Protein: Tartronate-semialdehyde synthase
Amino acid sequence: MTRMPAAEAAVHVLRKEGIEVAFGVPGAAINPSYAAMRKLGGIDHVLARHVERASHMAEGYTRTKAGNIGVCIGTSGPAGTDMITGL
Structure:
């Protein structure tokens, strides 16, 4: 069985689901995912200044065209709570 880091597996799943763009703010805990996105390609990243704003950006992207799936990426800590506002 082929082994790969979990971050790379997550990027493969996102690409398989048709994700082309992700919005977020890099942070220490999520950097392996950003490295995997850069290594594997296929997912563009839009940098936001705050995770709450990234969640609003992802929602807006979802609403712009049928079939768009907005993805918001946040690091550990308060990022999960901050994303709730955009939901």
